[in-house]
Task: inverse folding
């Protein structure tokens, strides 16, 4: 493109560039079917491995959640207010220990 180029000149240059790209595209070798099938199989194997890994990770997370829930339940049971009988037994044990020290 020059300083004094006309619209027709620019349009012709664009058409030539477009034709050149089209010729380059057409001159490419055809796609190798075997290679494409190998790539598809590899991609499918990768996806399967990724899905399996995700399933294992999810199972581990669920197992960890269950263990945490169990621990929380045990902690809540331990922190629950004691019954009157348990309080009396603890008081009696303290009293007996104090009596034995004397």
Result:
């Amino acid at each position: 493109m020059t300083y004094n180029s006309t619209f027709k000149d620019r349009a012709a240059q664009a058409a030539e560039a477009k034709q050149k790209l089209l010729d380059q595209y057409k001159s490419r070798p055809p796609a190798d079917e075997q290679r494409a099938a190998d790539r598809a199989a590899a991609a499918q194997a990768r996806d399967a491995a990724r899905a399996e890994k995700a399933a294992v990770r999810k199972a581990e997370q669920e197992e960890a959640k269950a263990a945490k829930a169990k621990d929380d339940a045990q902690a809540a049971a331990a922190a629950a207010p004691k019954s009157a009988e348990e309080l009396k037994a603890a008081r009696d044990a303290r009293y007996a220990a104090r009596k034995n020290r004397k």
Notes: Residues 53-102 form one domain. The first helix runs from residue 7 to 26. Helices lie at 7-26, 33-79, 84-101.
